[in-house]
Amino acid sequence: MKLLPKRSLIAAMLATAFVGISATAIAQGMAQAPASPPVAQSATPQASPQAEAQKHTQRHAERMERMQKKMADRQAQLKSELKLTSEQEPAWNAFVARTQPQGRPAAHAPREDWSKLTTPQRLDKMQAMKAERDARMSQRTEAIKSFYAVLNVDQKKVFDDKYAMGLQRGGMHHKGHHGGHPHHKDGMKG
């Protein structure tokens, strides 16, 4: 009898986390979307679902293209600052190839309607998606460690400095935030 409440609690926590992640993703998408005048929107008739899907696909492709360009620029800058030797060039090429973002098969397939899934099915799907993310992260970690091993001491310092900035840019480091509420410097007020 104790197993049922524990499973229910875990399912509820995972579902809450999923909703929170989804809400965050939606909010970020809305924040990135350019503001358009409301008058122009109300004057035009509603676009068909196919037209909306095409617009979404086009915006996604444009966003991916911009991201790829930024990534290539950052890689070129890092390579320049590392001052790699000709012996290190193959390791660099392998590092770049292994850290390229991979297309996610789920992203290109038609989106499944999560509302039609049962809670256990959603949890299984979320767990499978997490396993895919973990596998990609493991591959990236191994690529970084392999490349890092061929760098000299000065290059490692440059790489460490640049990689730390990348973590900050990616949201993994919150300067001045040590737990607690993000708007309070001491983290104790609430």
Q: What report would you give on this structure?
A:
- There is one protein chain.
- The chain is mainly alpha-helical.
- It has a domain at 64-100 and 118-173.
- Helix content is 69%, strand content 0%.
- The chain is built from seven helices and no strands.
- It has helices at residues 3-32, 38-43, 49-82, 89-98, 105-108, 119-149, 153-169.
- Helix 1 (3-32) packs across helix 6 (119-149) and helix 4 (89-98) packs antiparallel against helix 6.
- The chain starts with a helix and ends in a 21-residue tail after the last helix.
- Residues 171-190 have low confidence and may be disordered.
CA-based shape: flat
Q: How large is the share of residues in beta strands?
A: under 5%
Mean pLDDT over the residues: 74
First-residue to last-residue Cα separation: 37 Å
Largest sheet: none
Helix residue percentage: 55-70%
Radius of gyration: 22 Å
Q: How many distinct beta strands?
A: 0
Give the helices and strands as they follow along the chain. HHHHHHH
Number of helices: 7
Low-confidence stretches: 171-190
> What structural category do the secondary elements indicate?
mainly alpha
